[in-house]
């Protein structure tokens, strides 16, 4: 055996221990020497080149996969993932002049105006020791929770959906704990789980959400938490039916102490009825952010949970940001109230629903399949992601490769229907069919 390092065209992987090999690969990713999609040597090949045991390299690769640095395909190829360890992950590239179906933004034309709510905000200074939650916001959020049959006795205002999820995870879980996550799922949540040192346990998602049988198997093998989206799931648009919610409830009922977190980020514009398995949970959190339906600039969420969970979250919040700006809270509740009174949220819901339906119909006409039951996105299976993304970009469409959303699920692209007028859906479907025919020789993923 030789101790010479391996050269991956641009970068040399070095190390004699699993930790050293792991650090070497991560250094290449952080510095940009190893880029998403780059192939790394096989376990046996790298072990031979470095003069170490294959088990040493396997241990390093296993940790890197858990953290999302590496992605393996059928044990035959391992590549650098699109999800870096802790460095800032760049958003999808939108070429100049392309229709933006990649960044996941809501349609600005469907967001409520802010002029009147801004004028209604009382411009007074708040002091240390004042109440940290705006009473009007809490009462409005409580009414929304009660309307959906969710507990609302204990609420907290947090700085957005991911902020609420992170705070719940921080106060209960420790490095190495296992959490069941959706696959495919939201990259922000997957990144957060790995950044906290947790082990994601991927649960397949179908049009009705998490597979309850696979979730039950994971719980039986031992997980410490479950994180899911009940509707408008990103990226697939999955939405829980009443029957699926009951099946998930049965799966999580076997462990009353299991931490269950629900991310209902698109609540009033999801376009489907709300069904949740949260009834009678002893340890739970439901996070509802407003960014998708009031605007990304209003970065705030209201978290409902059991008394212990909310108390812990508020305690942890005081040690960090302290609270969410009361001026922002005022603006959010006034914008929320005005949007309901003026029908803005209903218009957004109906428009997104029409755009989803138009895309599904247009794809079907081209003999293409997609998942898009609710929310702002459609998930379209493909054999290879990068050629499809590049081909559509050349034709003026910016869509997102599915890899950042996937753990073990098959390749796909995500299309944000929020930016796709219904009359343009047939154009996109025809262009997608053309790209699949020309670049991959197949329309089916």
Describe this structure as you would to a colleague:
The chain has 15 helices and 17 strands. It is an alpha/beta fold and 445 residues long. The chain has three domains: 6-80, Arc Repressor Mutant, subunit A (Orthogonal Bundle), CATH 1.10.10.10; 99-109 and 344-440, Aspartate Aminotransferase, domain 1; 134-331, Aspartate Aminotransferase, domain 2, CATH 3.40.640. The strands form five sheets. It has an eight-stranded mixed sheet, sandwiched between helices. Strand 10, helix 9 and strand 11 form a beta-alpha-beta unit. Helix 2 crosses helix 3 (54-66), helix 13 (344-365) packs across helix 15 and helix 14 crosses helix 15 (425-440). The longest helix has 22 residues, at 344-365.
Q: What name goes with the CATH superfamily of the largest domain?
A: Type I PLP-dependent aspartate aminotransferase-like (Major domain)
Number of domains: 3
Sequence of strands across the biggest β-sheet = 6-13-12-11-10-7-8-9
- Specify the CATH architecture of the largest domain: 3-Layer(aba) Sandwich
Class of the largest domain, according to the CATH hierarchy?
A: Alpha Beta
Mean pLDDT: 91
Please report the number of helical segments: 15
Q: What level of helicity do the residues show? A: 40-55%
